[in-house]
Specification:
single chain, three-stranded mixed sheet, four-stranded antiparallel sheet, 7 strands, 8% helix, mainly beta
Length: 87
């Protein structure tokens, strides 16, 4: 299982107006037969085959290296078990 530690969540409206009110996870890779454990603010979320991909967006490298990169967006939904532990 891959692990990815987030620095911040993305507000959904910044990606698409349909995602207003959601917090999104932006990853540099998408799910492909291997679960991804996402950690943010001591909460965890697992991305697997049941987690819907909300979209992707390709950006030009802002540092002028002549490359581009793609981010894949998922809705932030930490596991219910983790939320209960925080209470």
């Amino acid at each position: 299982m891959k692990s990815y530690i987030l620095k911040k969540l993305i507000e959904g409206y910044k990606v698409n107006h349909r995602h207003r009110g959601f917090n999104l996870v932006a990853l540099p890779y998408q799910y492909s037969n291997e679960k991804i454990l996402v950690i943010h603010d001591n909460k965890e979320m697992t991305i697997d085959q049941d987690t819907p991909l909300l979209g992707s967006k390709t950006f030009e490298d802002k540092f002028g290296r002549g490359t581009s990169y793609t981010l894949f967006y998922y809705k932030w939904n930490p596991s219910k078990n983790q939320i209960k532990l925080d209470l």
